[in-house]
Amino acid sequence: MKKLWLIFAQTTTVGLAVWFLVALLHPDWLPGRTAPPQEVVTVKSSEPQSASASGMASYRGAAHRAMPAVVNIYTAKETKLSHPLLNDPAFRRFFDDRLDGDEAQRTSSLGSGVIVSHDGYIVTNNHVVESADEIQVALADGRTAEARLIGTDPETDLAVIRIELPNLPTVAFADDSRAEIGDVVLAIGNPFGVGQTVTMGIISATKRTQLGINTFENFIQTDAAINPGNSGGALIDAHGDLLGINTAIYSRTGGSLGIGFAIPASSVKQVMEALIKEGSVVRGWLGVEPQDVTEELASSFKLKQARGALVAGVVRGSPADTAGLKPGDIVLAIGGQEVGDTLAMLNLIAALKPDQQVDIRLFRDGRELTLPVKIGKRPTFRQP
Questions:
Q1: Catalytic residues, which ones?
Q2: 16-31: per-residue pLDDT in tens?
Q3: CATH number of the domain at 176-278, please?
Q4: Which residue numbers delimit the PDZ domain (predicted)?
C-alpha cells in the first residue's frame, strides 16, 4: 500500500509540473483556452505623410512629385569694365591710346525656376535673369535648353521664361490662402550650384510686409534652408504643390539663418498670367507720396485714431493732382475699402485698372470729404 501511494504522489507531481509548463509556454494548448487577440493600434494624422521602408514618416512623395518640375537656370551677360583713371586726360596722354576703349568681361550667375505649364513656361525671380544675354535651363532629367525671356516684373521680383522641349513635367499651384503657421514645407533649388537640393522646414509667418525687398510684398516666411542659387526655386507643401517662389533670405553671412521669404502662389499666378498675356503687369497709379499715420500725426491733424495714409506729396499732372488731392490729406478709403496704412493703400491702387473711376474718402481740415478720381497707369519705374 505504501508503494502504491508513493507511485501516485510521483505521478501527480510530474503531471502538475507538465501542466505548469504548458500553461506558461502554450496556454492555447489547454482545453477551453484561446490566445488573447492582438491589440490593433490606429494612428490618425492630419499631415499627408507616406511611410518609408523603415516605417518612419517621410515626405518623399511630395518631393518626387515636385522635383522634376524644378530647373536650374544659368545666365550669362557681357559687362564692360572701365578704370576711372581713363577719364583723366593726363593719364590718357601719358599712355597714348593703348588703353583706349572699355574692357569687356563675361559674367555668369545661377538660380532656379519652376515649370508651370506643359507649354514650357517657367517662373523664376527677376533678379535671376535680369539683364542676361543668354539663359540656359537644365532639367532634373538631364536635358538642357536655351530659354527665351517672356517678361519681367521688378516690383514683385518675378519673371517668366520659356523653353521648347517635349514631355515637360509641371507642378500644380497650391491654395496659399489655406497655408498656416506650422505647416510643413519643402524648399527645392540649386544652392551654391551643388545640384538640386531639398530642404525641409515649416511656415514661420505669413503676409510679411515692409521688408524693403520688393515694392509689393506679401511674403511667406519659412525656416527651410534657402541659400544663394535657391532664388526662383519652389516652396512646396506636403502634397507637392507649389506654395510659393523662393526669393530672398535674411542673412548676415550670405548663408541661411532660418529666415527665408517666398512669394505666394496666388501672386505668382497673377503676375505670370499677365506677363504671358501682355508681356508686362499693368497696375493702377494715383501719383502720391504716402506716409504712415502715427499717433503723433493723428493727434496733430485732430484725427481720432491713427489710420489711413498721409499724402506727403503729389506728382504734378498725376491722377491725384487732377482730382484735387493735396499734401496733408489723409486717405481713409479707396473705392469703399478702408486704408489701414501706406502698404494697404499701395496695394488697393495697384489692383485697380487704368481709367477706372473710383471715390477716395479723405480727411482734410478736420472733416471728411469724398473726391472722384480717374486711376492712371502705373509707370514702369518704381514709384510710390
A1: 127, 157, 231
A2: 666 666 666 666 666 6
A3: 2.40.10.10
A4: 275-353
